Amino acid sequence: MNEFMMAIESIKTASSILNSFNKLKSLAEVQLKVVELTNIIIPLQARIEQMSIQQTESNDTILKLRNKNLKLTDWESNKPKYKLITFKSGSSAYTKEENISLTTGSPYYCQNCYNNSNSLSVYQPVAAIEKYMENVKHSCPVCHNNIYIPNANYKPHNSSNQNSPVPKW
Ligand SMILES: [Zn+2]
Q1: CA of 143 to the centre of ligand 1 (A)
Q2: Is the predicted pLDDT of residue 166 greater than 90, yes or no?
């Protein structure tokens, strides 16, 4: 039996004792019934206080779950706006923009955070972007996942261009 049912049972017993009072004939009988009634009412009070605490805890849990659900619903309704792309470097990330060049300069979102935490975390370059870098290392500030994004302003170094393709002119 749960706390609530037990409390109702106690109240029923207490009211049947009260109903029996006018049938009592002696002070001794009344005193006995008062003791019986007290033995019901004191634990009942403790039980109701306990139920009140549980009720507060339940309300907190409901509120937390409601907020979580709201966040998730919001996330699910925005999710289709983002798509997973793969860079020339082989790294993957989510993006919101359409027809982008898939190079540095646009916000790219961490795949781990997107899939595992339902959150958007923008990749940040780990160092200043230099022209000679073909791919730029980026890191997620939340989960520290690293990816390589092709550099939009890539210009090969003159001194290290032995392996670069021969110009066509
Ligand atoms: Zn991340």
Answers
A1: 4
A2: no
Residue 159 lies in a domain: no
Which residues have beta carbons under 5 A from ligand 1 (an ion)? 110, 112-113, 121, 140, 142-143, 145
Ligand 1 centre distance from Cα of residue 138 (Å): 11
* 32-71: b (≥16 Cβ within 10 Å) or e: ebeeebeebeeebeeeeeeeeeeeeeeeeeeeeeeeeeee
Residue-range definition of the domain harbouring residue 74: 3-78
Residues 99-109: tens digit of each pLDDT: 789 999 999 99
- Over residues 57-71, mean pLDDT: 96
Cα of 122 vs centre of ligand 1, distance in Å, is 8
Asked if residue 101 and residue 42 are part of one domain, the reply reads: no
